[in-house]
Amino acid sequence: MHRASFFVGARRFLERMRIQSGNNKRLNCNLLSQNFPNYFILFTKKEQDICQIKNHVMLQKEQIADRFRILQDTICHGLELADGQGKFLEDNWLRPEGGGGRSRVLEGAVIEKGGVMFSAVHGPLPEQIAKSMHLPPTDFFATGVSIVLHPHSPMAPIIHMNVRYFETGTGRWWFGGGIDLTPHYVVPDDALFFHEQLKSVCDRYHPAFYRDFKHHADDYFFLKHRQETRGVGGIFFDYLDDKCGVSQEKLFEFAVAVGETFAPTYTELLRRAQDRPWGEPEKRWQMLRRGRYVEFNLVWDRGTKFGLETNGRVESILMSMPPTAQWAYNLKPADGSPEAETLNWLRKGVDWV
Amino acid sequence: MHRASFFVGARRFLERMRIQSGNNKRLNCNLLSQNFPNYFILFTKKEQDICQIKNHVMLQKEQIADRFRILQDTICHGLELADGQGKFLEDNWLRPEGGGGRSRVLEGAVIEKGGVMFSAVHGPLPEQIAKSMHLPPTDFFATGVSIVLHPHSPMAPIIHMNVRYFETGTGRWWFGGGIDLTPHYVVPDDALFFHEQLKSVCDRYHPAFYRDFKHHADDYFFLKHRQETRGVGGIFFDYLDDKCGVSQEKLFEFAVAVGETFAPTYTELLRRAQDRPWGEPEKRWQMLRRGRYVEFNLVWDRGTKFGLETNGRVESILMSMPPTAQWAYNLKPADGSPEAETLNWLRKGVDWV
Fold first, then answer.
1. What ipTM does the predicted assembly reach?
2. Which of A36, A160, B146, B154 could be a cystine partner for B282, CB 3.0 to 4.6 Å?
3. What is the CATH number of domain B61-345?
């Protein structure tokens, strides 16, 4: 935006705020500081005080971003402990249009390739999203933590987690995210344990969350061209706002709680896998399953597709790629083999819990 | 289509044909036999004779499919000679909606994974294509040969070729296809040789073909998210019909000529690469470049996307996948290294010839 029109915009906001009152005042105050952070000074001292008091009550996007940044720290610490050897390397980046991120990547003894990414970005809302949401041209703010871990052992699962908060200049906001598990070999007991952890987090916030979000995950993490799920599912939610009957504060708590359950849950899954023996055939199968993971991410994952098509930061978007993947023509595991059994589990609607 | 309305449609076609004459008669006759093959019997004996004589003049889709099937044979034979050891395994398949294919896959001494696929399929035109072409619901027929070869040596290039013929029930037809080369390490002399071969084929049919199709290839084989071309390009053409001033018969010849230049050209490129030494670092680079090949095919290639979204035969569509691929986070080759030099060549608009 041009500097002069930015200034005029901020003044108009301020004027509108001045002639309104009560809740609207808080809203405008909030929108002004979000949209024109450098023009906060346009407020009178008294207005600034009101604004700060009011903002203390309503969630601020910076507050959410800060909490997500701490979540990234906690998770990285937990994963380093679980790995026992690898240390995360950090990489800070700025987005030309606004904001930036803190990418952390680990190559460890247990986790072959892991990425734990934090970002908080803002700027004009890409036209495609604005259109798909029936919004006029506006600004957006998005912050989140996104994780994919590929273990060395084919007997341990790939795991993915993402929690994010999104807000537009028109005042709309929502949370999104989820966790899903992709075992190379499905172990029903592990899938049960995993889903129990997720259900227990969900149940603390809404009795329908687990059922609904588990269902969404089944639908979302699905390779339509293979007619198979990516793994044993998990939970997935998007556009989650207070229309579900849970306040913004509580939804924020929920998103953080999903994030906090990640490291302990995966640590337990790694512990269970550590003594399972494997050899060349299992390694080969792992490579082929990683090929499927690539197919899902590049062909079906909305976030990846959107990011690549709208000039996102490629290295962050593609940190989900496995270190190595393989493809074979028309491979069919022998009936009754552990590989065939795994394929039998890769379907929607399995009630693990 | 319901049987009764099919019958009425065929009768109307026949009536229209009867009140028209000359070229139109031939056209309708052709359209009738394409659209309503089981109703050929509706013609009088004399009309059937005219039809068969006329059709002998005009290209028949079966004739094109037969020629492409022979092309597949010739190419497979040439590639087995070039490999010196590997033999193609054949796999025939039927498409539930109509038609089928003959897939051939080779795992050789020089070619690590190669697929040479022939198919001839027909049925109702998928809604998405009909819409994108502003066509009413109609039938289609498509036949083609499609190839991707991944060599063992990182010093030899990946190559892709495709020639195809497409026809709709509304009477539209066109040829499409192309060849493009993806060296793991760009060797300018090889790129020059490759483009010379393509230019020489193109020049036999139209003075603008090479220039136009080379330009299309630069635009098409482009990883927008990486801002790099897939390789050193080649030629790419689509929706090529007689509006370009070349007859259907000559365009068919052109498509076959493109196909026939494939095996000798790649054989020469393999010969040139055979004595180039390589070790672990080159192998690693090859794996990363194969990762880019996967990204192009799954994110940008229209054929792959279309096939996967419209329930195509997955194993044929994904035969283009490399046997193994790798991804690394934020890898930047050292300035002046052969890898960095290769990246410098991966841009649009290089005039190789």
1. 0.82
2. B154
3. 3.40.1500.10
